[in-house]
């Protein structure tokens, strides 16, 4: 019962990820692609969590938090590049 | 154009400590669960990179006045020190030892010299990552 639910959830999230990949490839502007990549990261968190339920292990719990942190830092870096043109400023103007 | 990053900076001030705490956890949990010095070091440098993204290079140098070259050297000294320390006890190079101790607050602990070797890996990984990022990032 639980296995069926987890498997169907993985399939549904995979279908959602395929839709997001379509947006990454097709997306007319760069911010579209960045948002789609961020959402793919969140879907990866969900897939890892469901797989760790299916494998009945807690060894992947760190991976979930790690993907969340890395997706956040990556998205912040991308959006700063899109807004300012530089990722790390030497001295901020204030 | 003057931009206002108040949301990013406030979120960074909260999230940064969570990332550092998680990296310290992953460093110490490396003996029994997935993790260790490499992932912990990368996550710590990720926290510093988030600080670099939210603020600028000069501010981060004021917050963390660390020479990362010395950090790499200290890490390599830790690694070779734990290796050479085994020679003092007439055992082969890099032989590790452990002991069980009962500390007043921390309770029953199993201390292992492999943790000191891992601390060397941690320091080297943080130093190398930050030197790469800062060398690419600065514009002279």
Automatic annotation (TrEMBL), chain A:
<feature type="transmembrane region" description="Helical">
    <location>
        <begin position="60"/>
        <end position="82"/>
    </location>
</feature>
<keyword id="KW-1133">Transmembrane helix</keyword>
<feature type="transmembrane region" description="Helical">
    <location>
        <begin position="6"/>
        <end position="25"/>
    </location>
</feature>
<keyword id="KW-1003">Cell membrane</keyword>
<keyword id="KW-0406">Ion transport</keyword>
<keyword id="KW-0813">Transport</keyword>
<keyword id="KW-0472">Membrane</keyword>
<dbReference type="Pfam" id="PF04066">
    <property type="entry name" value="MrpF_PhaF"/>
</dbReference>
<comment type="similarity">
    <text>Belongs to the CPA3 antiporters (TC 2.A.63) subunit F family.</text>
</comment>
<keyword id="KW-0812">Transmembrane</keyword>
<dbReference type="GO" id="GO:0005886">
    <property type="term" value="C:plasma membrane"/>
</dbReference>
<protein>
    <submittedName>
        <fullName>Multisubunit Na+/H+ antiporter subunit F</fullName>
    </submittedName>
</protein>
<dbReference type="GO" id="GO:0015385">
    <property type="term" value="F:sodium:proton antiporter activity"/>
</dbReference>
<feature type="transmembrane region" description="Helical">
    <location>
        <begin position="34"/>
        <end position="54"/>
    </location>
</feature>
<keyword id="KW-0050">Antiport</keyword>
<dbReference type="InterPro" id="IPR007208">
    <property type="entry name" value="MrpF/PhaF-like"/>
</dbReference>
């Amino acid at each position: 019962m639980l296995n069926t639910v987890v498997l169907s959830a993985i399939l549904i999230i995979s279908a959602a990820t395929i839709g997001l990949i379509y947006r990454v490839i097709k997306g007319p502007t760069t911010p579209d692609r960045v948002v789609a990549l961020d959402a793919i990261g969140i879907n990866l968190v969900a897939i890892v969590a469901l797989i760790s339920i299916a494998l009945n292990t807690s060894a992947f719990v760190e991976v979930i938090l790690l993907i969340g942190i890395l997706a956040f830092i990556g998205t912040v870096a991308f959006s700063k590049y899109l807004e300012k043109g530089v990722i790390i400023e030497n001295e901020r103007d204030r | 154009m003057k931009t206002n990053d108040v949301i990013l900076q406030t979120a960074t001030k909260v999230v940064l400590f969570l990332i550092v705490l998680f990296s310290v956890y992953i460093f110490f949990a490396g003996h029994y669960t997935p993790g260790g010095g490499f992932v912990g070091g990368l996550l710590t440098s990720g926290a510093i990179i988030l600080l670099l993204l939210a603020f600028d290079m000069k501010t981060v140098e004021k917050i963390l006045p660390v020479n990362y070259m010395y950090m790499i050297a200290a890490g390599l000294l830790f690694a070779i020190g734990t290796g050479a320390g085994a020679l003092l006890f007439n055992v082969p190079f890099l032989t590790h030892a452990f002991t069980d101790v009962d500390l007043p607050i921390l309770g029953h602990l199993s201390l292992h010299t492999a943790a000191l070797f891992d601390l060397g890996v941690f320091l080297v990984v943080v130093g190398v990552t930050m030197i790469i990022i800062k060398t690419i990032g600065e514009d002279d």
